[in-house]
Amino acid sequence: MTEQKREQNPLSGLQTVAQLLQQGLFHHRQGDVPTAMARYAEVLSRDPKNAEALYYVAVIACQEGQFKQGVDLARRAIALGGSTARVHNLLGQALDRLGEPLEAVKNFDQAIALDPNLAIAHGNRANLLVDAGLPQEALKSFDRAIELNPQSAPDLINRGALLQTLGRHADALSSFDAALAVIPGDPSVLNNKGMALAALGRHEEALAALDSALAASPRAAHMHRTRARVLELLGRADDARAALAKADELQPPAGH
């Protein structure tokens, strides 16, 4: 019996590594990054070629703004056989932040090739295409991201903003309303909704949306300025001047 107790299970080390990874992921999700990092580091000390641990360390590096380190770690994970959609998506995000958009979009494309249903990769690709001045292609990617994840408020908001720049204000309004169904009362989305309504000539509704936005974020100078423009369109000149004065008080114009 004693000898049996001493006998080692050949899989026990692997099981321990798996447990450490799960513990690291648990602490990571709880926001306890130092403890998570300690678990991932322990995994890598036992198994330096563990691609999953390298991926999670790369995630932490990017979360802390260390994008170059994140790129290096993600590429190491890929070289070790960890060529997964999520690794390429992370690599694309980091490369974008490092000012390498062509390499970034290649990695988003690779992520989508590996997992066509990875909504976040479609959304990230869309944002990059907006920055690249390819709005129609970006819109296709936003539409796919939202099809896969209708509750993605960032994609709904960014899609709405893109539609506004394209002059499609009714479609933008629908996108902002969908975002508000996910994050009710969000002041930035209400502000965007107000601008879309104003562009559609629905000035009273625009003012109501802006008033709701300012109730939640009363010190947002740009919202007061938007409200001033809507008040002017309604013929309420005195109220418009008061709104503009409030905006200038919160954020004086350049040179003042």
Offer a few descriptive terms.
elongated; 0% strand; Serine Threonine Protein Phosphatase 5, Tetratricopeptide repeat; mainly alpha; single chain; 256 residues; 15 helices
- What Rg, in angstroms, do the CA atoms define? 24 Å
Q: What is the terminal separation in angstroms? A: 85 Å
- Any guess at the CATH architecture of the largest domain? Alpha Horseshoe
Mean pLDDT: 92
For the record, the count of structural domains works out to 2
* Poorly predicted residue ranges: 1-14
Strand content bin = under 5%
CATH topology title of the largest domain: Serine Threonine Protein Phosphatase 5, Tetratricopeptide repeat
Structure classification: mainly alpha
Q: How is the biggest beta sheet arranged? A: none
The level of helicity is over 70%
What form results from the Cα inertia axes? elongated
Helix and strand run: HHHHHHHHHHHHHHH
Determine the CATH superfamily of the largest domain: Tetratricopeptide repeat domain
How many β-strands, per DSSP? Answer: 0
CATH class wording of the largest domain: Mainly Alpha
